[in-house]
Write a structure and sequence with these properties.
This protein is mainly α and 207 residues long. It is built from eight helices and no strands. Helix 4 runs antiparallel to helix 8. The relative contact order is 0.21.
């Protein structure tokens, strides 16, 4: 499994997805608490943003069934995560002159980030079955993806917290998420090529 390019790319794609999703959604309670939002509303807003990921996951499955190519769906997911995180966290200027989007718009962008990201795991699990080296290595391919996802969730939140501490706020969070999304897009291109080659081989063998 480790020797095949498909599982390695799948693991990388899952790692950069889970890293940025956990870094953003996991810190929402702290971000909103810092903004002075009441604890009750902090819980509601955070859980609602997390729940949109489920909608994205289901939508991803439906789009795959409708014939949307997996590589394209992955690129869409990472692109939405990139744009959503930049709009939610980017800040222009410094101190009293700093400007960012209005709070309701930024929250909507966080939900969009989570929603678009939900399409990524749905696609990766489908590709894991297709790109496993053999039918007997599907379980190890999925296991590799899960381990990579766990590594992303383990390393990203401390890195984002360190960045926020150095910057004196969360306004540079988008730098980390943008890096993850760009890596994810590169992995998506590689996975799309492997999937196309796999589909071509399957057609050749059946004919």
């Amino acid at each position: 499994t480790l020797g095949a390019p498909g599982p390695r790319l799948l693991g990388l794609a899952f790692a950069v997805y889970s890293a940025q999703w956990m870094a953003v959604i996991g810190f929402l309670p702290a971000i909103y608490a810092d903004a002075g939002i009441a604890a009750g509303w902090t819980g509601v807003l955070s859980s609602a943003a997390a729940a949109t990921n489920i909608v994205g996951n289901l939508a991803g499955g439906r789009l795959l069934q409708a014939g949307v190519r997996p590589g394209r769906l992955l690129r869409w997911g990472y692109a939405v995560m990139l744009l959503g995180s930049v709009a939610a966290f980017a800040q222009w200027g410094h101190g009293a002159d700093a400007w960012s989007l209005p709070a309701p718009v930024r929250y909507a962008c966080v939900c969009l980030f989570s929603l678009g990201g939900g399409m990524v795991p749905a696609t990766l699990f489908m590709l894991a079955v297709r790109l496993a080296p053999s039918s007997s290595t599907v379980s190890t391919t999925v296991g590799l993806m899960q381990q990579a996802s766990s590594l992303g969730q383990f390393f990203a939140p401390p890195a984002v917290a360190w960045l926020a501490m150095r910057a004196g706020g969360w306004q540079w969070t988008w730098v980390g998420t943008t890096g993850c999304s760009l890596v994810g897009m590169l992995a998506a291109f590689g996975l799309a090529r492997l999937h196309a080659a796999h589909a071509g081989n399957r057609v050749s063998s059946s004919s």
